[in-house]
Write a structure and sequence with these properties.
- This protein is mainly alpha-helical.
- Helix content is 72%, strand content 0%.
- Helix 1 runs antiparallel to helix 2 (33-61).
- The longest helix has 29 residues, at 33-61.
- The protein is elongated, with a radius of gyration of 14 Å.
């Protein structure tokens, strides 16, 4: 994979990750506990695949494009 494409994919994947985390926060505010549990479970699987299947191979090939501050985001409504 060319570096330019790797950067575009990684940037988009991180934005998707942020959007999915916001979705969990939205469900925590507006949904039931069951809806939150279900959403959290599904989103965690998607995020794991995004990281393991897409981002990790890119970051191994181009370690300099991995964000220095790559952390697991939290939201105040989800314990």
């Amino acid at each position: 994979m060319k570096r330019e494409l790797a950067i575009k994919i990684a940037d988009r994947a991180l934005k998707i990750s942020e959007d999915l985390n916001v979705l969990v926060c939205d469900v925590s505010e507006l949904g039931t506990k069951e809806e939150l549990d279900y959403t959290r479970d599904l989103i965690s699987k998607v995020l794991m695949q995004l990281l393991l299947g897409l981002l990790n191979p890119i970051y191994r090939k181009y370690p300099d494009i991995a964000p220095d501050d790559l952390t697991i985001p939290t939201c105040p409504h989800v314990a």
